[in-house]
Amino acid sequence: MNEIMPEKQEKAEESIRKKFHKQLFTPFAKACKTYQLIQEGDHIAVCISGGKDSMLMAKLFQEIKRHRQCSFELTFLVMDPGYNRANRELIESNAGALGIPITVFESEIFDAVDTIDKSPCYICARMRRGYLYSKAKALGCNKIALGHHYDDVIETILMGMLYGAQVQTMMPKLHSTNFEGMELIRPMYLVRESDICAWRDYNDLHFLQCACHFTETCSTYNDDGTTSSKRLETKKLIAELKKNNPFVESNIFSSVENVNLDTVIAYKKKGERHHFLDEY
């Protein structure tokens, strides 16, 4: 270990290797292996928003690269969509303290989204992804990595049913439809949010939450909340259900791995609708 490594970086990395190895590195490595997220010769753009999830993801990527089981390259990509100075400095200082060599580029997404009244968060997310794909491809990357975790996955499944009237999930990897040869991967897919928070708090780290113009008053992320009311409502519902059924979270996750098409009235595949009466 580098003798001049900053204390905060050293503690954060040691906690990943020891105290939180089972909770963080093990599920990260398992997701990468199970879903074949990292392959020989990959150049992965690790997309860092400044929050706890993406910052930890960057450290886990550094750790798995250290194991040298296959050869791949990393670019730690930060898009500044219009942060105020304090939020931009917070991201840069955290990256510096944790030993993450970030590449920063700018866009004007926040200004564009400010003029949108309906679903600004959804539009912002879609625009962010497009900019990230474009920049990553220009830098020679073939994949972008996002920091969505296990809790995001099960909340998305339940939200789709309750609010979207559909059964779908947040996939561990996707081919880009607009950027040929590019993939999106989610290596935090099996990591629990509570364990991410425990690592953050153990290392006394303070990260960005949502820093758009709607929520700039809550620049740091020090609790388990979320700015999305529907997601927060779903999170609370899962927590309530867990009181009587400790397996509710794993059951929600497993439900989309155990879909029985013989008992499904209708489903879509590649945009085409199939109905059970078609083959009844």
CATH class of the domain at 7-154 and 169-208: Alpha Beta
Counted beta strands? 10
Q: Major sheet: order of its strands?
A: 3-2-1-4-6-5
| Rg (C-alpha, Å) | 19 Å
User: How does the major sheet shape up?
Assistant: 6 strands, mixed
Q: Structural class of the helix and strand makeup? A: alpha/beta
Oligomeric category = single chain
Overall pLDDT: 90
Apparent shape: globular
Q: Give the termini separation.
A: 65 Å
CATH architecture of the domain at 7-154 and 169-208: 3-Layer(aba) Sandwich
Helix content: 40-55%
Give the helices and strands as they follow along the chain. HHEHEHEHHEHEEHEEHHEE
The CATH topology name of the domain at 7-154 and 169-208 reads Rossmann fold
How many helical stretches? 10
Query: CATH H-level name of the domain at 7-154 and 169-208... which superfamily?
Result: HUPs
**Low-confidence residue ranges:** 215-227
Percent strand: 5-15%
Written description of the protein model:
It is a single chain. With 280 residues, the protein is an alpha/beta fold. The chain has a domain at 7-154 and 169-208: 3-Layer(aba) Sandwich (Rossmann fold). The strands form three sheets. Strands 3-2-1-4-6-5 form a six-stranded mixed beta sheet, sandwiched between helices. Strands 7-8 form a two-stranded antiparallel ribbon. It is 45% helix and 14% strand.
Question: Can I get a quick summary?
Answer:
With 280 residues, the chain is an alpha/beta fold. 45% of the residues lie in helices and 14% in strands.
